[in-house]
Amino acid sequence: MADTSRRLAGLAWLSIDGVSYPVVSDPAWRVASVTRETLVSMGAVDGYKETIVPGFIEATIRDTASTTVRGFQDMTSVSVTLRLANGKQVSGTGMWTTEAVEVNSTDATFKVRFEGQDVEEN
Q1: Of the four listed, 2, 45, 81, 82, which is most buried by Cβ atoms within 10 Å?
Q2: Cα 65 to Cα 108: distance, rounded to the nearest angstrom
Q3: Range of 31's domain?
Q4: Residue 3 in domain
């Protein structure tokens, strides 16, 4: 049996509401969090402010004959799961697409990005 304990990258699987899609490249994610900006006055560093940022899961996937690109535009409140080569699973619930989907017909691919406040890594 093959030992995959040192595998860190190179494979990924994406499912949306339980439907699997072929990942071609660029899987990425971020858990919902905050960004911090340092606040300074003319004589000192005063502290920082926090701004909430949404979590996201994105990937470039294959446009197959059974894929309806318009359907991605209409996705709101979906569950998205990204499984990675290192065994990590990133999941989000109540997610929505945020960008217009543009298909690259040369490679039959398109990038899809989902955002939401409930993204976790396991």
Answers
A1: 82
A2: 10
A3: 12-121
A4: no
For the whole model, what pTM was predicted? 0.87
- Whichever domain contains 69, its CATH number is 2.40.30
Contact (CB, 8 A) for 75 and 6:
no
Task: Give the count of domains, the chain.
Answer: 1
The answer to the question of residue 65 being in a domain is yes
CA distances to 8, 25, 62, 72, 90 from 76, in Å:
31, 23, 20, 9, 18
Asked whether the beta carbons of 101 and 110 are under 8 A apart, the reply is: yes
